[in-house]
Amino acid sequence: MLPGGWCVNIQKVLVILKPDCGQRGLDNEIVSILEQVGLVVLRKDARCLTEREVLFLYDEHKQTSTFPDLVSYMVSGQSMILVMSGIDAVAKVTRLKGRTGSGKGIRGMYAENFIRNIIHSAETVYETNGEVVMFFPDEDISMNEKKVIFGLSGMTECGKSTAGEYFRRVLRF
Known about the structure:
Blueprint: E1 10-17, H1 19-23, H2 27-35, E2 40-48, H3 51-57, H4 67-74, E3 78-87, H5 89-97, H6 105-110, E4 119-121, H7 125-135, H8 160-169
Antiparallel strand pairs: 1-3, 1-4, 2-3
Keywords: ATP-binding, Kinase, Nucleotide-binding, Transferase
Domain Nucleoside diphosphate kinase-like: 10-143
Family: Belongs to the NDK family.
């Protein structure tokens, strides 16, 4: 707690500057935008993503008609993979990146289309923890973790297995 009762929430967040960002020479500009709100780059790696990594990042989109194009695009060139840290980092990056087509945020300013939209980041702490560990297995994410105890019960076919799989894959339980 800070004086006056304020509590700060320092978090880490994984940010991926997609291939079009680098191809257009926007990497430094986007990092600068993120740093202007108090985020700090802790780790940085420039490389091409693997299909396995893209499937992990965009699993929720795999049933869409644009998914094959998204995968093809994401493995087509080098991406800048960043671990950034700051107060409420996940929410700040989510707000700054904006939504494709909204005309707001980084995507609003720079996106060419739904797929070529410059930037990726998870929108929850739990998702970002999984992404950080995926790309930087030795990175300490303990500052992001909140311990929760819960139980699942119910009749057959009520969703316990689905919830359990979600906890295992996304929340990394």
